[in-house]
């Protein structure tokens, strides 16, 4: 999102001119901007986050600690770094995110590859976007 708010929005002038009437929301965005949002949400974000959390952080912690502890710590850190979940104030939302991320660790362990949690993450992002 930093890429979009700091780099791409200034290309389209100011935020106020990007969406002239807030009620129009996504319909008012330029098609290129919508394409970049979709590309980011369903490809770049899952690849980057899974590489960082399941590829680097979990693998590193699992080598130092035991795997269950590494899974819990990685899952809690992942949840904590998603401010939209923290701002909800809902314990159920927080626990749900920890469970989902723990499942991604299990998928990584069972498959032995990072592409499985990447695909699961992209699917979760897609379903969240459709529901929202």
Core attributes:
single chain; 132 residues; mainly alpha
Describe the protein in words.
The chain has helices at residues 2-11, 15-18, 31-64, 67-80, 83-86, 91-111, 115-131. The protein is mainly α. The chain has one domain (2-131). It is globular and about 50 Å long. Residues 1-5 have low confidence and may be disordered.
* Low-confidence blocks of residues: 1-5
What is the beta-strand fraction? under 5%
N-to-C SSE series?
A: HHHHHHH
Mean pLDDT: 77
User: What does the largest sheet look like?
Assistant: none
Topology:
Layout: H1 2-11, H2 15-18, H3 31-64, H4 67-80, H5 83-86, H6 91-111, H7 115-131
Task: Summarize it.
With 132 residues, the protein is mainly alpha-helical. The protein has one domain (2-131). Helix content is 79%, strand content 0%.
